[in-house]
Amino acid sequence: MKKKIKLPKLGKDVKEYILVAINKEEGESVEKGETLYEIEADKVVSEIAAEDSGVMGQWFFEEGDQIEPGTVIGEIEA
Amino acid sequence: MIYIDTGSDNIYFNLALEYWLVTEKKPDDFVLLFWNSSPTLVVGKYQNPLEEINMEYAKTNKINICRRLSGGGTVYQDNGCWQFSFITKSTDTGIDFKQFISPVVDVLHDLGVAGAGFNGRNDLVIEGKKFSGNSQYIHGGYTVHHGTLLYDTDLVPLVEATTVDPQKIISKSIKSVRDRVTNISWHMEKPLSGIDFKKKMVAGLLGDGEVYKLTDDEIKRIQEIALEKFNNPDVIYGKSPKYSIKRKGYFDGGKIEFSIDVAKGIIKDVSVAGDFFGTVESSNFTEALKGCPYERQAVLEALGKMPGEVYKISKEEMADLIVEI
């Protein structure tokens, strides 16, 4: 079953994040709680952990992309 | 609150200490560090040193180069620039700078720096000139907040080392914002020595908190992290966002221009143009350099294996041109 990875909103004034690191490539196994990706806004870098275990599916964005909170950025085959 | 004297002006050690605290020590209490560095340029997590730093100036003046884990732009630090670090468990996932910076402003006011205040970018200013830049990273349930305090910094290298020739680099990296800057000591009626400033800042921030001394084993472990995570060219240069760079040179044999794509420190593609003569095609360069680390020695070795020659442009000259670092 495919689980969507949705970009969180970490600060009330943040309108956009930069995806600064993708830590799991497509096809890699993912454990819940592992750092999946990192985002930056307003000089803060936040690590985002996987909410599900499974196999990393497709990423819909690449490092350096500017993305609005709430956007689906990838999926995990859980 | 707990205060730890880092006992070092080595940027790599001090950033490793922060990282060790949030990954291995995992303190329950709020931790304060207050430290300085020998001359160092520190790029943000998602920056490219080649876009931000005058590499030749940094090399000539023996300025360290480092990549931090937090966001934002490039800063220059020397022993006249103090750095405060706050390490705490993340209480929520919101971005909040003021809880960390306000106490710093309060102590500066107590020291007679009445004009110290905030600007709109979470920096601290006096009369509109910046003296403190702040950034954070959030890792494993902890927040690391660190900020600079220009106290008595030599502002000449600060400007020179971050004035970069407009190389033709295309990337999505975060670009630094150039601000007008000032030193705190210039705004004190009776400036303190650097050490006395540190003592008063620590006393004001720590209040009735405790002091913790690192053990020899802890220092050894932090030194290991410093080498692996911070004082490591693979991290400083290899962690740059992917970029395309053009490098042009004029030699006795003519003009030669390389267009190079680099990702994770590895050359992904190369094309060559110019009015040089030789027995080598552009495709020979592509085949030789594709997959090669973007480092001078590796490039020189790859060129050494390439068939053909360029008339009156040596492979050493081409390696120097291709890789500045």
Description:
The complex is a heterodimer of chains A (78) and B (325). By secondary structure, chain A is mostly beta strands. Chain A has no helices and eight strands. Chain A has strands spanning 2-6, 17-22, 29-30, 35-41, 44-49, 54-59, 66-67, 72-77. Chain A is elongated. The mean pLDDT of chain A is 93. Chain B is an alpha+beta fold and 325 residues long. Chain B has eleven helices and 16 strands. Chain B has helices at 11-25, 49-52, 55-60, 98-110, 155-160, 194-206, 216-230, 233-236, 282-289, 296-304, 315-322; strands at residues 2-4, 31-36, 40-43, 64-67, 75-77, 81-89, 116-118, 124-126, 129-132, 134-139, 142-150, 168-171, 210-212, 243-251, 254-263, 266-274. In chain B, helix 1 (11-25) crosses helix 7 (216-230), helix 4 packs across helix 6 (194-206) and helix 10 (296-304) packs antiparallel against helix 11 (315-322). Chains A and B meet through strand 2, strand 4 and strand 5 of A and strand 10 of B. Strand 5 (44-49) of chain A pairs parallel with strand 10 of chain B, so a sheet runs across the interface.
| Total number of strands of chain B | 16
Shape of chain A: elongated
Ranges of chain A with pLDDT <50 over ≥5 residues? Answer: none
Could you tell me the mean pLDDT of chain A?
93
Radius of gyration of chain A: 12 Å
Strand order of the largest sheet of chain A: 1-8-6-3
State the end-to-end distance of chain A: 6 Å
Greatest interface (CB-CB under 8 A), with counts per chain: A-B, 21 and 26 residues
